[in-house]
Amino acid sequence: MKEILPDICIETVRCDLKNMSSVNMVIVRGGERSLLVDAGIPPIVSDVSRTALEAALRELGLEPDRLDCVITHLHGDHLGLIPYLHEHGARVFMNPEEAERRLDVVCHRLSYPRERKAFYRAMGCECREDSGEYRLLCSQADECYSFYPDELHFDFLPVRAGEVLEYGRYRLRAVGLKGHTFGQIGLYDEDGRVLFCADQVIPGVVPIVGSSSETDSYLGLYLDSLEELRSRYEGVLFVPGHGKCFVNDGSEIGNILNAYRERLAAVREILRQAGSPMTVREVSGAVYGPQFSVISGNNYQDVMLMWYKTCACLRYLEETGSVREEKKEGIIYWVADPGKEFYDQDRAGV
Ligand SMILES: [Zn+2]
């Protein structure tokens, strides 16, 4: 493990999955108890997180029953070792808001067959049982998401935004990081000027923005949170859930804000020019490229991620009144509202 600050150690665990090359494992060494931030990848997907944790505990001379683990948010790549931690007497903490809105589109919609069909249909897929594409969509969802329902239910101690957890020299205040999920939290130490920022900011990546139903979107919350992180935590060391640690000079956050602004503008423009209703699938293909409207075994997860991002943009534009949905036979169609201005530019920080 690499010590990035006194008693804060990080190991970048390589996993080489389709959509993820690595996850960060972070341990804050304390006196009585130590802290692990997030619980890595489930052994059913890959054993790398468990192997890395066991090696780290040996190296640092820590016992798992004197470990606390804060789960920043309910995504599978952050929950994997919870059963292992429980089994070995560790304590697990999470923001209860995550449990209340656990039915995140990423984790939930594609895990249960009935929800899955409604989701694909809403996105604009035909969903006939005898269609090759629908069978492929279902088999890919089984492969990628079927382990989620069990993973999402576990016992935890509550930790809410504003509460403080202490480990050795660090007083870590839980910070709400809404947007990537509804109840995601980070941890901030004011004296050490370090923020564990979970998946809110990942260097070089535009994180997805979730939702827990077909009709809500967290993109507005996400953009607001990024603006706050950019100004309030200037000069602070950010330790993300994936990728390299970096000192926040506003550039990584600016890149993400710009990317979402550009996509919001592109989505709005595509709908305006189309002049007729479009499905999420069609909009996504037009924004991100035609490869994101055709499903194959190789690109399934990429396509799903682009659909989530497109949904988030459309819902945001809907909130600001510049597009609206029309639902027909389970399919959501989107139309530009020609009378309305482009999205709220102040809010998106333009
Ligand atoms: Zn993650």
Describe the structure.
With 350 residues, the protein is an alpha+beta fold. It has two domains: 2-101 and 150-252, Metallo-beta-lactamase, Chain A (4-Layer Sandwich), CATH 3.60.15.10; 103-147, no CATH class. The chain has eleven helices and 16 strands. It has helices at 48-60, 82-87, 96-100, 105-109, 113-123, 132-145, 148-151, 219-232, 251-274, 280-288, 300-319, and strands at residues 2-5, 8-17, 20-28, 34-37, 67-71, 91-94, 157-158, 164-167, 170-176, 185-189, 194-198, 237-240, 246-247, 278-279, 323-328, 331-336. The strands form three sheets. A seven-stranded mixed beta sheet has the order 1-2-3-4-5-6-7. A six-stranded mixed beta sheet has the order 8-9-10-11-12-13, with no helix packed on it. Residues 343-350 have low confidence and may be disordered. Residues 75, 77-78, 199, 241-242 line the site of zinc ion (ZN).
List the helices and strands and how they pair.
Layout: E1 2-5, E2 8-17, E3 20-28, E4 34-37, H1 48-60, E5 67-71, H2 82-87, E6 91-94, H3 96-100, H4 105-109, H5 113-123, H6 132-145, H7 148-151, E7 157-158, E8 164-167, E9 170-176, E10 185-189, E11 194-198, H8 219-232, E12 237-240, E13 246-247, H9 251-274, E14 278-279, H10 280-288, H11 300-319, E15 323-328, E16 331-336
Parallel strand pairs: 4-5, 5-6, 6-7, 11-12
Antiparallel strand pairs: 1-2, 2-3, 3-4, 8-9, 9-10, 10-11, 12-13, 14-16, 15-16
The structure holds zinc ion (ZN).
